[in-house]
Amino acid sequence: MYEQKTKETDNSVIEFIESVENEKKKEDAYQLLEIFEEVTGYDAKMWGPSMIGFGSYHYKYASGHEGDAPLAGFSPRKAKISLYLSYESEERERLLKNFGKHTKGKACIYVNKLADIDTNVLKDLIKNSVATYQKLYPNE
Q1: pLDDT at residue number 1
Q2: CA 45-67-125 angle, 5° bins
Q3: What is the CATH number of the domain that holds 83?
């Protein structure tokens, strides 16, 4: 049986951010914490050892695989800051046009530092992520 690796934990979000070695990245993480909490209305929780998530949803795929995931989140990783937002969609792509300097994966957006992006667009991306996952996976 598949065991989900990234689960919500009781680890301290503040202790995790304080463990970030790069001072600028640590500052950015505190700013992101504020932005995500304000936009989502959820308190930050650690998911696994290095992801800060906000809210959660339960998913179940046709294959039978199911689990829980945050509605939105981020991680101040060594190389880049990972933003965990809804997967590729027309709305996400439209918002990213005015986002600033970033790279992207299927469900992740990577930025070097907050100064490279438009935080108002980030807020819209977070709202889009929360709305998308709440619509796809309403509480049963």
Answers
A1: 46
A2: 55
A3: 3.90.1150
